[in-house]
């Protein structure tokens, strides 16, 4: 049954219009299938960078690059979420798809928090290096730097956890029926795999 609405005194079929920034397809494939790989690679890479940034010498060499990677990861994450919301209108709804959609947006705040913490680490590090006279005993700025560094590691770990969960749930939604056939040995076409 078509969804009809009144327009100018007559009924017209309503059609789905995707969000403004949601790509529905790229190069003949659903955009979501391609876009999800960007955050799947960049978020763990940013998390690895967060761990490496614990060493001051490495922090100075890669810190701004890691922050840049997380900016790209954040944008790609939003594009993947938007394209997934658009794709939802073209796939058969199932409990697995609903689960993937439900948890898919959980990654955004963690990537943002990881980025902000690492940005804080970089600014604190820069301030500490530019300072002429360091306090001889307790240094509140250094203490804040240690706390922010620890938080960046926590946020990195949570981000990697969520990207794994989201990716796993999406893969299950797509490949569940194929995996069921693999588990039961039920090949398509009834071929039992033995050549006679």
Rounded average pLDDT: 85
Number of DSSP strands? 4
Strand content: 5-15%
Radius of gyration equals 24 Å
Summed up, the helix count is 6
Biggest sheet details: 2 strands, antiparallel
Q: What order do the SSEs take from the amino end to the carboxyl end, as H and E?
A: EEEEHHHHHH
**Helix fraction bin:** 55-70%
**N- and C-termini, Cα separation:** 50 Å
Strands of the widest sheet, in order across it, are 1-2
Number of domains: 1
- Stretches with pLDDT under 50, minimum 5 residues: 1-7
* Structural class by SSE content: mainly alpha
What's the shape? elongated
What features would you describe in this structure?
With 196 residues, this protein is mainly alpha-helical. The chain contains six helices and four strands; from the N terminus they run ββββαααααα. The strands form two sheets. It has a two-stranded antiparallel ribbon with strand order 1-2.
Give a brief outline of the structure.
The protein is mainly alpha-helical and 196 residues long.
List keywords for this structure.
two-stranded antiparallel ribbon; 67% helix; disordered N terminus
Annotate the secondary structure layout:
Layout (H helix, E strand, L loop, with lengths): L3 E4 L2 E4 L11 E2 L2 E2 H5 L1 H16 L3 H32 L7 H10 L2 H24 L9 H45 L12
Antiparallel strand pairs: 1-2, 3-4
